[in-house]
Structure formats: C-alpha cells, structure tokens
Design goal:
By secondary structure, this protein is an alpha/beta fold. It has two domains: 95 residues, no CATH class; 65 residues. Helix content is 62%, strand content 12%. It contains four helices and three strands; from the N terminus they run E-H-E-H-H-H-E. Helix 2 packs antiparallel against helix 3 and helix 2 runs antiparallel to helix 4. The chain is rod-shaped.
C-alpha cells in the first residue's frame, strides 16, 4: 500500500474559544502549551481506535475565532509540539522498561541457575522423597523468578510502542481551525 492510499480520518472538535483546548494552569508560551486533559483524552481515545497506518486530520470548530489563518498555524504547531513531547516521554518509559527487563533478566538467570545447582546438590547428597520435594520446589521457584523479565520482553513493551505510533500520527496530523 502506498502512502497516498492510507485512509484519512477526521475528528471534529467544537469549542467556544481556543483557550478551551489548552491547560489553563500551564505558564508556557502558546506553542508549548499542554492540552487540556479532557481534550487530550478525547483526541487520544479517538486516535487509539484507528489503524496505525492512517492519516489524521483534526478540524477545530471555534465559535469565537479571532483570525482563522493565524489560529490554524498556532494551534497546529501547539498540537504537533505537544505530541512530539509526549512521544519523547513514552520513549523514555520504554527505555526504562527495557532497562528494567535487562536487569530482571540478569538477576533471574543468576537466581534460576543457583536454584537449579542447589536442586542438583540436594538430590546428590540427600536421597529420598524429601530431596525430591526440595528439588522440585527449587526448580519451580527458580523459574518463577524469570516471570518478570519474560513478561517485560513478551508483553509489556508493545503497548508503549503502540502509543508512540499513535502519538506520531497525532504529531503529524493536519490541523484546521474554522469558524463554528
């Protein structure tokens, strides 16, 4: 499928004033403003339900619009900058998760090796059913220690990659501001 063949999905947002889109407690200049939490959640929930390979278009209908052309550029830049920032945050989360996974894997491998060596030593020095129970217990405990790294490397990383893709789509979304 060529890039031009990807579908475009449009979200229509309706607000009274442009400032409703942004966090009123954010002291940053307009281009770096945080989105209002409700607005952010609405946009992201919409984008999460769409395929990752689609194009996005946000149309913001504003009742009290000072200048559509200037507002369109400013709001578009603000939204693009905001989602660029969120991409970096999630990439940081992913790096931390993978670092934790590597650390957990190292600890888990040492622990499982120790448990398996102890299990072998116990059965070598102590015959009988108690030794078998101890051996099986150490084997199970050792492999349970591998649960967390396996969970990280099989399951925990891909939702973060999915969020990065959604935020990349939002970062490059076409943004239009029109009079309501």
């Amino acid at each position: 499928m060529h890039i031009s063949q990807h579908p475009t999905h449009t979200l229509d947002l309706r607000v009274r004033e442009l400032r409703q889109l942004f966090n009123s407690l954010d002291p940053a200049p307009f281009l770096n403003k945080d989105l209002d939490r409700a607005c952010e959640a609405y946009i992201e929930n919409w984008a999460l339900s769409l395929p990752h390979d689609c194009h996005l278009h946000l149309t913001i209908h504003v009742e009290l619009l000072p200048s559509a052309s200037e507002a369109g550029t400013l709001v578009g830049d603000a939204i693009h900058n905001y989602y660029g920032y969120k991409i970096e945050l999630v990439r940081g989360e992913l790096r931390q998760l993978l670092r934790l996974g590597r650390l957990s894997l190292g600890i888990g491998l040492v622990f499982v090796a120790t448990c398996l060596l102890l299990a072998e030593a116990i059965t070598s020095f102590m015959p009988g059913p108690a030794a078998k129970i101890a051996r099986e217990s150490l084997t199970i405990i050792g492999w349970v220690a591998m649960w967390r790294p396996v969970q990280i490397f099989l399951y925990d990383w891909w939702p973060l990659k999915g969020r990065i893709k959604v935020f990349e789509n939002l970062r490059f979304a076409r943004v239009s501001v029109v009079q309501a």
